[in-house]
Hints:
single chain, mainly alpha
Amino acid sequence: MAIDWRTVLLLVPWNDVLKNAPKVADSAMKLWGSVTKRTPKQEARVSVPVVEPLEPQSIAKLQSRLAAVEETVTELHGQMVASARVIKELADQNERLVGQAEVQRRKIAWLTWAGVVLFVLSAASLFLTLFDW
C-alpha cells in the first residue's frame, strides 16, 4: 500500500530542516570547492624495486593494468565531481525552499492578524446592531 504524501510531509522534522539549511548550504559549497580544485594526477610516480628482470610480456600486462587503473581513477573523479555538483544543487534548492517557507510563514502570520482584526470588527458590529447603539 502506498503512503500518502501528506503523511510523509507530516513526518519530516521541518524545524530541524529549517534550522540546519544554512549549514547544509555552507557544507555543500565547501565540498564543491574542494572537489573542483582537485584533478586526477596524470602521472603516478612510484618506485618499485625490481628483483628480477621482467619479461616484455609481463611489462605489457603491467602497463595495460596501469592504464586501466588510470582510466578508472579518472572515471571515479568525474563521478565524484558530478556527485558534488548534485549535492550543491540540492543544497541550493533547499536554501530556496527554506526562503520560500519563511515568506509563507510571514504571510500566514499577517493573514492571521488580519483575520483576528476582522473578527473583532465584525463582532463589535454585530454587538452594536443587536443592542441598537
